[in-house]
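Sequence only, no structure available. Ideas?
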Amino acid sequence: MAGAVPAFLPGGVIWVYITGLALAAGGLAFVLEQKMKLAGYLLALMLILFIALVHAPKMGEDPNAIGQILKDLGLAMGAILIANASDDE
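Reply:
I predicted one. Tokens follow.
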């Protein structure tokens, strides 16, 4: 996964660990039904940043980029739906 980190981001492989922890924390928040609204919106933001920083720049060279963009967009919208359906204030 370190190859997916854009070259302009310093830190390299550390971003793989940070995003992995963020995904695990979001999933845990959904399962435990704690801070679901915050977790859903932050998860959606992270996925939209993936689209803008990782997948969109590769559209000209990677034929699978549009599929990755649509996958992340669908996951982001699902996270927003979960956030909006939660009873958190």
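The radius of gyration is 14 Å.
Hope that gets you unstuck.
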